[in-house]
Design brief:
Length: 448
């Protein structure tokens, strides 16, 4: 009889080692190797003869309409590509307290009116979930609720075929009996997800999984987890306030360009119908304030970029950014010093994206540069101006996509001046000002 094999598996990256060590050889993380016993009983099945596969031509494959479950939350349905696909496995990840359980409970409540829905809690008791549902106005007699950490028990419920949608909160808290390790380990997450996924696809049951994230912001567990599921949703934003953004970073059944913007209220998460107006409602016109025409997926969004400069009291000036990558901010500050007459070497520079949003697109470069220059010189940008454009290291303003959508959003909210990169005259919207480089932008549009 084959003996069981002992391996040490990294809980951070999933790398396997024959012996324990304090540091993982693959990801260099400390104290992440845990012992796991691998059964060798399955190896004997490899000697069995397997039947040949029966491939078919692509043109002969039967087509069928993809049935989707509508959440009735329009923006969420858009992010999912039109609704939750029957038999699909969907993973929702986000920071603790961001609202993952809240939005899934709201979705489960709305779908329970027309579908059979089971909410599985691995972190809370049924009593705790019921209290939260009552506070959110999502308490329903048609919504089934159970608290368990057994993946095998959840698979039995899925295989019963009684439910159209099963929500598991969360995948890091469930464990299957076949794996001799604790819940949350790489082996448990991988095997539990595979079991749940196979059961969901075999019974045409839609599956929603909640996933935890690490302190770096990536989904906890092996990278294989993101490959197993069909849809990966990311919930981002400030957990203490501001807007929350739901976007798809992987979607086998639709586009990943859409996003949904929410605001946390006492009664749960509510869709923000006009986020641009809400973000600019409390704006004060002053130096260091610039309105940036951003894109969240395919949705245009006007965001205020604030900058503050101050004479440093130390030998090394401080640079800090909220909602923007600090490395990118340092690059833009260095470019401003080299390509313009701004002297920022003895100044602390602080940049803030209002509303708790995080901007990653390069189109924010011009707005950040103009906000820093405005704060450093005490000059203001025209209050009816909107700015966007990528800035190169030579100071040139580069083209960014969806110029027409950004300009249309600015016009809708009463901004009559759009400042951006040079484009052919035929494609420029009305009141558009194309500029070639950062020095021209600062000299032309900043005034005292």
């Amino acid at each position: 009889m084959a003996k069981d094999k002992i391996l040490f598996v990294c809980q951070s990256c999933g790398a396997e080692s024959a012996s324990w060590s304090g540091k993982c050889f693959a990801c260099n993380e400390w104290n992440t190797l845990e012992q796991q016993i691998i059964s060798q009983a399955a190896s004997s099945s490899q000697s069995k003869k397997t039947s040949r596969l029966k491939p078919i031509k692509m043109t002969d494959a039967k087509q069928r309409d993809v049935k989707r479950l509508k959440t009735t939350i329009t923006d969420v349905d858009e992010v999912l590509g039109g609704g939750i696909v029957v038999g699909s496995v969907n993973l929702l990840a986000g920071q603790p307290g961001i609202g993952k359980s809240t939005i899934l409970l709201q979705i489960a409540h709305k779908l329970s009116r027309t579908q059979n829905v089971l909410y599985v809690s691995g972190e809370e008791s049924t009593h705790q979930v019921a209290l939260r549902a009552e506070r959110l106005g999502a308490s329903s007699a048609s919504l089934a609720l159970v608290a368990t950490n057994s993946a095998d028990s959840i698979v039995q419920e899925i295989n019963s075929g009684e439910y159209d949608l099963v929500v598991v909160d969360s995948v890091q808290t469930v464990a299957c009996e076949a794996v001799a390790s604790s819940a949350g380990s790489v082996a448990q997450i991988t095997n539990s997800t595979k079991l749940l996924s196979a059961a969901a696809k075999a019974s045409d049951t839609a599956l929603l999984l909640v996933g935890h994230v690490t302190k770096e912001g990536s989904i906890a567990g092996p990278k294989l987890l993101e490959h197993i599921v069909d849809v990966v949703l990311q919930f981002e934003g400030d957990r203490y306030g501001g807007f929350k953004v739901l976007r798809a970073i992987k979607n086998r059944y639709g586009s990943t360009e859409h996003s949904a913007i929410f605001e946390m209220k006492d009664t749960g998460l509510e869709l923000v119908k006009n986020p641009s107006a809400a973000l600019l409602a409390e704006r004060q016109i002053s130096d260091g304030s610039v309105v940036f025409a951003a894109l969240e997926g395919t949705r245009p969004l006007l965001v205020e970029v604030q900058a503050l400069t101050n004479q440093t009291n130390y030998g090394y000036p401080k640079r800090a950014g909220s909602g923007i990558d600090l490395n990118r901010l340092n690059i833009l500050i260095a470019m401003l010093e080299r390509r313009t007459k701004l002297k920022l070497g003895d100044m602390d520079v602080y940049v803030n994206i209002v509303g708790g949003l995080r901007i990653t697109e390069p189109a924010a470069d011009l707005a950040v540069c103009m906000a820093i220059a405005s704060a450093a010189k005490g000059m203001q940008l025209s209050e009816d101006a909107v700015v966007f454009g990528e800035v190169g290291l030579s100071g040139e303003i580069r083209h960014v996509p969806h110029l027409d959508k950004r300009a249309a959003e600015a016009k809708k909210l009463g901004f009559n001046k759009v400042i951006g990169p040079n484009t052919p005259t035929k494609t420029q919207p009305p009141n558009y000002h194309g500029i070639a480089n950062i020095r021209t932008a600062l000299n032309t549009f900043l005034s005292k």
